[in-house]
Write a structure and sequence with these properties.
Layout lengths: L43 H16 L2 E4 L2 E4 L2 E3 L2 H10 L13 E11 L16 E6 L9 H6 L1 E2 L3 E6 L2 E13 L2 H13 L4 E2 L7 E5 L3 E2 L2 E2 L5 E15 L3 E2 L2 E2 L1 E5 L3 E2 L13 E3 L5 E3 L15 E2 L6 E3 L5 E2 L9 E3 L19 E3 L3 E4 L2 E3 L39 E2 L7 E2 L19 E3 L2 E3 L1 E3 L11 E3 L1 H20 L2 E4 L2 E3 L2 E4 L18 E5 L2 E2 L5 E6 L2 E6 L1 H4 L9 E5 L4
Parallel strand pairs: 3-4, 31-32
Antiparallel strand pairs: 1-2, 4-8, 5-7, 6-17, 7-16, 8-13, 9-10, 10-13, 11-13, 12-13, 14-15, 18-19, 20-22, 21-23, 24-25, 25-26, 27-28, 29-30, 33-40, 34-35, 35-39, 36-37, 36-40, 38-39
Length: 563
């Protein structure tokens, strides 16, 4: 494809001039030069300005110094200034003097407000607007004359696109010379938490102040700086003045209306009707302004069993025609209707419920008793709100609950079903739980059967525990310590007796004890134990342990001794 030649400077169109665009439609444009309301817009700088205005004009931070009230300046920190503050921790003027008191802030980030989602449908051509009405203007003035003659002037409407709801985060730093000054500023700022910040007559934004943090420090020259940091979260919204060649604010005018009241020459008595109690009401008859008639009138004629009051009279629209339709008897909902004979292929009632020779389709509600000598077949669901009495219940369809006369009965179709039963449950045979078969509840106190299909009762388990488990638990809990009575190298003697292990457990040996000589652990691989009557002997392999036992040594044994 050949490349198009660029236009000359004179032939170039101004992108901002709507009248020069190819997609421009003058029918969508109205004069806006005399509007009281201009294009509505809200930008990020407006939110920054709202903070500056609120601090200077509403909070009005001041401190008292030398019995004088000093206004605290509020400054927006540029990237260069903020970098200098972060590097040095404070601000200095041109003479390198510390600037106190002062409040400095900067914007740290912006994110979408997910609590207020906005769907523009089409971002390049938004379809969701907020309509604002201008009550009175030069073309819509409030005056008594317009009200009297029924003149309804045109109104002015402005459609403004739905804004983007955002959350802006700001970081603040306060410097003062004294803690008392800092406390006053923090108290005043904290009191405004949750308020709407902004200039009157302009957009306002709800702000939330995060926690304050004390960052007081000493500078390089040993001067104390009272410093506090805090953050502010502002709920803002962005409305660009123009986006992708489309104005975000559009003006619309309603058409003017004139209501004409018609006068008639009639005596006043025909319009006034007296009522009971002395009241008076206006009874003004309707005046037909014009009528329309047709050349081919609509004609109704009676039929078999149907009588018309104006049978055969045509209606062409020029004059009203009243038709009273009647039959030979009253057929209201409270009447008793009698027919000689009714023949029909089907009878349809209500929702509808259809009665035919083959059956009934639809819903049937019966008040009272229903008796049938034949069989009843239900192709859908059957709900019984009372008591269901049956000699036998059979089902051939596997559902969530099946009751058979004999054989298997199933309740539920998934493992998370819950079934409740009140009363006793008697089972002859066995039952299965997750594939495990249970055929009895055992009362064997010795648990000697070792059955894989029996559950142990509380009685059997209690007796078994008292007989067997009690001794085991007592043995396992034994943990006593003894001190040697005498030491004759390489043997230490203790006045102690080892505990006997219950049946089925490994006999008590040196692994069931810990030995310490003068507070130091003794290795097991160099030790042997022996019970000699009421004396417990510890025999030490001197070469294996690396030292000899002496009579003044203290050896402590910890383990399974009798108390």
């Amino acid at each position: 494809m050949a490349r198009q030649k660029p236009l000359s400077r004179k032939a170039r169109r101004d992108f901002r001039n709507l009248s020069q665009r190819e997609d421009y439609n003058r029918g969508n444009e109205l004069r806006r030069d005399k509007d009281d309301i201009k294009n509505i817009s809200n930008e990020i700088i407006d939110m920054d300005s709202a903070i500056m205005y609120y601090f200077n004009e509403v909070i009005k931070p001041t401190v008292t110094e030398n019995k004088e009230t000093v206004k605290v300046p509020v400054m927006y920190a540029s990237p260069e200034r903020w970098l200098s503050i972060q590097k040095m921790g404070f601000m200095r003027d041109k003479r390198q003097q510390l600037i106190t008191p002062v409040i400095v802030f900067r914007r740290t980030g912006m994110s979408k407000n997910e609590n207020l989602p906005q769907n523009k449908i089409e971002a390049n051509n938004p379809q969701q607007f907020v309509t604002i009405e201008q009550n009175y203007n030069q073309q819509n003035r409030y005056d008594a004359f317009s009200r009297q003659i029924g003149l309804t002037p045109n109104k002015t409407y402005y459609n403004v696109v739905m804004p983007d709801y955002v959350i802006l985060n700001y970081e603040f730093t306060i410097w003062t010379s004294y803690i008392e000054q800092m406390n006053k500023l923090v108290e005043r700022i904290n009191y405004t938490n949750g308020s709407y910040w902004g200039e009157p007559g302009k957009m306002r934004f709800k702000s939330r102040i995060e926690s304050f943090s004390d960052a007081s420090e000493m500078d390089t020259q040993g001067e104390r700086l009272v410093k506090t940091n805090f953050t502010v979260e502002m709920m803002g919204y962005i409305i660009p003045e123009e986006f992708n060649r489309y104005a975000t604010t559009k003006k619309y005018l309603t058409p003017k209306k004139v209501i004409i009241n018609m006068d008639v020459e009639k005596p006043a008595e025909e319009f006034v009707k007296s009522e009971v109690g002395g009241g008076v009401s206006i009874n003004a008859p309707r005046q037909d302004v014009f009528s329309i008639s047709v050349s081919n009138p609509l004609t109704f004629t009676g039929g078999t069993g149907v009588t018309l009051s104006s049978d055969g009279v045509g209606f062409d629209g020029s004059q009203p025609v009243t038709q009273n339709i009647s039959i030979g008897q009253d057929v209201s909902t409270t009447s008793n209707v009698t027919f000689n004979q009714v023949t029909s292929n089907s009878l349809v009632f209500g929702n509808p419920t259809t009665y035919t020779y083959t059956g009934i389709s639809g819903s049937v509600n019966i008040t009272g008793s229903l008796t049938t000598s034949g069989n009843v077949t239900v192709n859908g669901d059957m709900t019984v709100l009372g008591t269901l009495t049956a000699q036998e219940i059979k089902t051939t369809y596997v559902s969530s609950s099946i009751i058979f006369e004999s054989g298997s009965t199933r309740f539920g179709d998934t493992t998370d079903d819950t079934h409740e039963r009140t009363g006793s449950l008697q089972i002859t045979g066995s039952w299965s739980l997750n594939g495990q078969t249970i055929n009895e509840i055992s009362q064997d106190t010795t648990l000697g059967d070792a059955s894989t299909t029996a559950l142990v009762s509380e009685y059997a388990l209690n007796n078994f525990s008292q007989t067997n488990v009690g001794d085991v638990q007592t043995y396992l809990r034994k943990q006593f310590y003894k001190t040697s009575n005498s030491i004759t190298n390489p043997t230490a003697s203790f006045a102690a007796v080892t505990a006997s292990a219950p049946s089925g457990y490994t006999a008590t040996n040196e692994d069931d004890f810990l030995f310490f000589i003068n507070g130091q652990y003794m290795e097991h691989d160099a030790l042997e134990i022996e019970q000699s009557g009421s004396v417990f002997l510890l025999k030490v392999d001197n070469s294996g342990i690396g030292y000899d036992l002496e009579s003044d040594d203290e050896i402590i044994a910890v383990g399974k001794f009798n108390s």
